[in-house]
Structure formats: structure tokens, C-alpha cells
Amino acid sequence: MKAQRTRSQDRILNLLKALNRSVSAQDIYIELRHHNQGMGLATVYRSLEALKLEGVIQVRTLNSGESLYSCVQQDKHHLTCLQCGASIGIDECPVHQLETELQKSHSFKIYYHTLEFFGLCDRCVTEISC
């Protein structure tokens, strides 16, 4: 039986739907305060964790260690520059078939997956080679 969401979880989920982009927990905290729906930062983190475990939001951790949260959408894949932090979205997904196989073979419910490649963007490669 699925636990019922708290008011804080509903507020955060509604905010993420409205923003329609990935944001940090700190950004969520600030946005809620701007909308007169303030809550403690610890509550924001607890609510995000519960929503993640429910499978309705996803988290992406940047190479800086910052976590970005968004509603579960289509799979997102990125090329991330280790020098400047630029992140380029890519549309191709080579792991959809693997995901299906893993769900069947391990009786494991997969909510989403991420695929990220780390390296240097064109601009940073040029700066390093100069």
C-alpha cells in the first residue's frame, strides 16, 4: 500500500511540474518562499527523498556534486564538460533494450535511468591546446 503524500510533498511536486526544468533543493526552497509556501530546507530534502522513492521525481547529480531534481520525464542523457560544467543534452539512448531486459530478468521496477558522458567541450579543448 502506497503511503499518502504529505502537503509538503504535494507542494514540491506541483512546483516541479510548473517549473518544467531541473532545479536544486535550494532553488526549490527559494521558489516556495517566493510563492508564500515556505518550509524548512530539511523538509524540502525529506520530501524530495520520499518523492524520489515513490518514482515521481528524478535526480541528476552534477560533477560539482550538486543534485538537480525534476519530474520523471523521458530519459535524459548528457555530455558534461569537466572544465566549464556545460551540459549538452543528447537524444539517443542505447540502453532502452537493456532496461527492459533488466526489469524482466531481475523483477526490478525501473522508474527512470540516466546516461552521462564526461569530458571536454569544444571550447575547453581549444583553450587547453592553446
Automatic annotation (TrEMBL):
It comes from the Bacteria. Zn(2+) binds at residues 81, 84, 121, 124. It holds the Pfam family FUR. Fe cation binds at residue 113. Binds 1 Mn(2+) or Fe(2+) ion per subunit. Binds 1 zinc ion per subunit. Its cofactor is Mn(2+); Fe(2+); Zn(2+). GO terms for molecular function: DNA-binding transcription factor activity; transcription cis-regulatory region binding; zinc ion binding. GO terms for biological process: negative regulation of DNA-templated transcription; regulation of secondary metabolite biosynthetic process. Coiled coil: none annotated. Gene3D superfamilies: 3.30.1490.190, Winged helix-like DNA-binding domain superfamily/Winged helix DNA-binding domain. Keywords: DNA-binding, Iron, Metal-binding, Repressor, Transcription, Transcription regulation, Zinc. Belongs to the Fur family. This is Ferric uptake regulator, Fur family.
